[in-house]
Write a structure and sequence with these properties.
105 residues; mainly alpha; 3 helices; 0% strand
């Protein structure tokens, strides 16, 4: 019976800090967008300017997150998982804000 060999790969690669920060911005933006949507729905659309300012700030966070994810992706010899997650999630956040603006909420 053949003995199973374990192959370990040791690498000095690490995740990009810009990609991790991009993912953090995406998560924060998504959480605040969901809070704004839930609060607006519970108040039947009767909200003040602070909700719009929060949605605008989430859009700014998402734009910065997309840029940071792209900059993290351009770093050589790194892992890019968080860069890809950050870019994708920030694009989803921008699409959510775009859908809210298009619906007129």
């Amino acid at each position: 019976m053949k003995k199973k060999q374990h192959k370990y790969i040791y690498s000095d690669k690490e995740h990009t800090k810009k990609g991790i920060f991009s993912t953090i911005l995406a998560v924060l933006s998504f959480i605040f967008l969901m809070l704004v949507i839930i609060a607006s729905y519970s108040r039947r659309g009767d909200v003040g300017g602070s909700f719009g300012a929060t949605a605008f700030l989430c859009t700014v966070f998402s734009a910065i997150g997309i840029i940071l994810g792209a900059l993290g992706k351009s770093e050589p010899d790194k892992f890019y998982l968080f860069s890809y997650i950050g870019i994708a999630w920030n694009v989803v956040d921008v699409l959510i804000v775009s859908a809210i603006l298009y619906a007129g909420i």
